[in-house]
Amino acid sequence: MTAAARPEPGPPPPDRGPARTLRQLTEIEVTRLRGLGERKAKALATMGIGNVFDLLTTYPHRYVDRSRQADLADLAVGDEAVVLGTVQRARSRRTRNGRSLVELEVHDGTAAMTVTFFNQPWRGRQLGEGTEALFFGRLVDYRGGRQMTNPVVDVVVAGPEDGKASARRTLRVVPVYPASARAGLSSWEIGGWVDEALRRAGDLEDPLPEHWRERLGLLARTDAVHDIHVPPSMEARGPARRRLAFDELLRLQLALVLRRRALEQDAKAIRHHVSAREALAPTGENAPGSTLVQRFLAGLPFALTRAQRRALAAIFAEMAGPLPMHRLLQGDVGSGKTVVAVASLLAAVQGGHQGALMAPTEVLAEQHFLGVRHLVGGLAIPDPCRLGGQRPVAVALLTSRTTASERAALHAGLRSGAVDIVVGTHALLTDEVRFRSLGLAVIDEQQRFGVEQRAALREKGRASSGPAAPAEATGPEPGADPDLLVMTATPIPRTAAMVLFGDLDMVVLDELPPGRVPVETVWEPGDQGEAAAWTRVRAEAAAGRRAFVVCPLVEGSERVQARSATEEHERLTSSVLAGLRVGLLHGQMAAASKEQVMAEFRSGALDVLVATTVVEVGVDVPEATVMVVESAERFGIAQLHQLRGRVGRSDLPSWCYLLGSAETPDARARLEAMAGTSDGFELAEVDLEIRGEGTILGARQKGRSDLRLASVRRDADLLESARAVAEDVTAGDPRLSGHPALADEIRLFLDPHEEAYLFKS
Ligand code: ADP
Ligand code: MG
Description:
A hairpin with a 7-residue loop joins strand 12 and strand 13. The longest helix has 29 residues. The protein is of the alpha/beta class. 38% of the residues lie in helices and 17% in strands. A 7-stranded mixed beta sheet has the order 6-7-4-3-2-5-8. It has a 7-stranded parallel beta sheet with strand order 14-15-11-16-17-10-18, with helices on both faces. A 6-stranded parallel beta sheet has the order 19-24-23-20-22-21, sandwiched between helices. The protein folds into 4 domains: 88 residues, DNA polymerase, domain 1, CATH 1.10.150; 114 residues, CATH 2.40.50.140; 243 residues, P-loop containing nucleotide triphosphate hydrolases (Rossmann fold); 158 residues, P-loop containing nucleotide triphosphate hydrolases (Rossmann fold, 3-Layer(aba) Sandwich), CATH 3.40.50. The chain starts with 21 loop residues before the first helix and ends with a helix. The chain is globular and about 95 Å long. The structure holds adenosine-5'-diphosphate and magnesium ion. Magnesium ion (MG) binds next to helix 13.
């Protein structure tokens, strides 16, 4: 081909100098901006702004469209209004009864109003004459004039001097920054510095591959940063926000995907001796040659649900595969996660490895221990050292309450391989805990364990001394990575899961065992609701069924909680529940008495169990048909859903009574949601909405905080796109060498420890 056939090179781009990276912006101190001296820099520092990057990622929290701003003259008394006006006169004094009073006269060019502040003397200093500000409040009539009392205020221009500083007066859309009166900065000042920073920064490098940007219909980064700060119109804000929110989510997903790829890179997997096809094929319990997992499944009093089979098929395939498993098992309360976890642990045990199950609290660990021990009861594994060549599968419990001598024996058992499955709390992470060969770690996350704890438990595998397996169980040399299965106690929304557990594969139990009858949930505040609950408890007890009564959550230690439960037990047995056989269960009781009470309740020797939230998770008594939660407004949605999950575990109809009154709108919303649906995934969405994503995702990040614009609820589509891009750019390139600009940008947002791990050569 001749040169003439090649496409003509286009005109060179206008030369605005090399595009700047975000890292370069972090290297420019704000003091380099004009008119920004030491004093102002100190004030900015209190807002967490030290460099130009910080400044440009301090986004307006509000915009005012001047062309559509309601004129004060057009507003009527009684209106909720936003008024952009200038302070003409300010006066501070004390009322006759000694309260401080600040009175302003505010004009917006069409009319005037009075603004008064009670007990906020500093408003006099903040809102001096010439200050331009937004006032949010209700207009009332006061002595024939219009007035706002204690409005919400955003200072836009701090005074005549401030206002001269820039050409922003002509802006049609005025960005309002979260300026703090305490720091003595106005939105106007910040806007002025942002203008200058934007001008001097010039073009910003766009690390997002062009074809992805086009495919996703996203704005170029330079335009997005400009338009979020100085939108030419109100409509321009949307695309700008989308692009920048996408960048935040992409950085987040990239960090997660990179973590995963790094794990895969230097992984030494244990190839477990389990075959999904074989394990899930129907066999008789004692068919010759059947594996431990087969015998376990055949011995269950029920058939697995399709969802459980699907989950186990995925888990077994990965356990047998060449990469360590990192998987999240999600499922609604009662969907049967425990059976899946135990079958997976046994898949490790049957190859001569050990399993660990870690729970976030002692009570939970104890319950899991009882549950696992019950489920594996009667199962034996080969033991060449013993007569008959078999021994039972050994399950042990390790918490901080384990006594020193028990602990020493347990540590020895884990090292020798005499213990097959250990259930425990954080205590499992201590240095003394060494495994002969840890094959699978199951973490009952309850959203309380973080990435660090997962990693710590995985390290236990690397520190293993070697498998107890006979020679034919090949491969698992010391120092291999155990497989990891993380479970959530209650569902979390898919989007939140992508953020919290984005480095894990996910499998969902989206089906309940057959024959479950939905629990009828009754939320009726007041005495009537309570009377109905006790009537139901008595009726069901008379029919041979059982009931839980959960005591109100009280502030304070477990001890305080226990005392209050004991008192509630006394009160109930001497009044509304007199004549019934009523047991008491709380976290301060000795393990043996707890077990005994539970056994009595299970067998029917007790009709009612008055308990603290120790019954929240895991308790499984099919004949229990009534759950009464006292002061239900004090519990969160996830907890209530867990508690309700203690009943409705058979084909008997069940009831859940939520007692107490909802004092706050949030509490009301929670209880209404509970009464409205029994779908855990739906409740999880409501929960995310009520609590806000901050509380749920809050502790997630340790590096530079980076979810400023993105919302996992609102931007679910962006999150999915970000995930796709992250997977795409890292495919076959676990250190992002093919995308140096992206790699450089991610590193900026990681804490040093993680950066070293993800980008080590
Ligand atoms: P969760 O997912 O909340 O941890 P569990 O594992 O406690 O649920 O299981 C809830 C109840 O359902 C238990 O009583 C368990 O024995 C029972 N179960 C689990 N799987 C099945 C199934 N496939 N068929 C019938 N019952 C099942
Ligand atoms: Mg469970």
